[in-house]
Amino acid sequence: MAWKNLLSWLPWKRPSSHVIVGGGITGLIHSLSLTEAGHTVTVLEKEDHSTTDPRTIVFTQTDLPTLDGIGMEGVVLRESVPFTKPVLDIGTRGIPELFRAPALAGSRIMPRENLHRLLERTAYYQGIDVRNGHHVTAIKNTPGGLRLTIDGRPNITASRVVGADSTVQLETAR
């Protein structure tokens, strides 16, 4: 008991375990950020495979420093190409001048599928447990933490759950 009192003044807390529901771009970026902060992270993705999203993603000059916080800026710079002109001149369709292509000067563009692949690879090397084909069906608040039911079977307990699945909102038990 005296040992606990002696250590109680220390300013750090034991890293908590996080489960991120949704293994898309947002979920993987959150997982890398939490891992960088010293937390243990598990990512659960309902689909059995990685994304096959055919769209592209544009990174503006303000986005790139944010990616540096999770160690991805250099990778994105290598894998993306400069965004030189708009596919469609959106200024001619009544959209404000703010959204014309010059506002995107210095931006980079890449397929979302490529970004997702890079994030998955980085997560793997960071020791993040990414599990595809795991559908979270319920979350219950227990004395030991939040208990996640996966495919109808109680499976994982975590300190925190982050919903990043873009289709279903998860509400933790109160």
TrEMBL record:
Where does the signal sequence lie?
Answer: none
TM region(s), chain numbering: none
Pfam families noted in UniProt: FAD_binding_3
InterPro entries (alphabetical): FAD-bd, FAD-dep_Monooxygenase_BioMet, FAD/NAD-bd_sf
Query: Could you tell me the keywords of this UniProt record?
Result: Monooxygenase, Oxidoreductase
Q: Keyword check for Oxidoreductase, yes or no.
A: yes
Q: Which domain of life is it from?
A: Bacteria
Q: Which GO terms describe its molecular function?
A: FAD binding; monooxygenase activity
Q: Which residues form the FAD-binding domain?
A: 19-165
Q: What is the designated name of this protein?
A: FAD-binding domain-containing protein
The organism's taxonomic lineage, starting at the top: Bacteria, Bacillati, Actinomycetota, Actinomycetes, Micrococcales
